[in-house]
Amino acid sequence: MPNKTLSGSCLCGNVTYKVDLPDPPEVNFCYCGHCRKSSASLFDAYVIIPKTAMTIEKGEKMLTTHSIKGDSGYPVKRIFCKECGTRLYGTCDNPEFAKMFDGFGALTMGVGTLDIPVKEMDGWKKAEEYYKDQKVLIKLN
Ligand SMILES: [Zn+2]
Ligand SMILES: [Zn+2]
After folding, report:
1. Which ligand is closest in space to the CA of residue 48?
2. Ligand 2 centroid vs 66 CA: distance in angstroms?
3. Interval 22-52: pLDDT, tens
4. Ligand 1 mean position to 76 CA, how many Å?
5. Where in the chain are the domains?
């Protein structure tokens, strides 16, 4: 699959990054209680990528980590900008996560922090089927 390098940043701009994404990427939507709280939204939208695909370019010292036990029983870590609270990525200590991408390990990157026109996301794939059981919990009219 061809890859594309994109840039992203937190709300205040102190933290910037570059990320190598498949073109088009597959976006996951998680409706679990932790994702709803941490995103302050009805769901979290993120891509699962190799740890090596994301490079913090600026503001590494501005990042802080929140850790909580996830559904798998392993700590799930969410990495934020200390200044503006934007969550840039997450990791999980689940060994299954560490094995992904030929042992490079995986992280989840929130697609909302990318500095690209929203229109560019139109052709992206949705991995919603994984989360359909969670989604039926939320019915908005
Ligand atoms: Zn910030
Ligand atoms: Zn979740």
Report:
1. 2
2. 15
3. 999 999 988 888 998 999 998 899 999 999 9
4. 21
5. 3-135
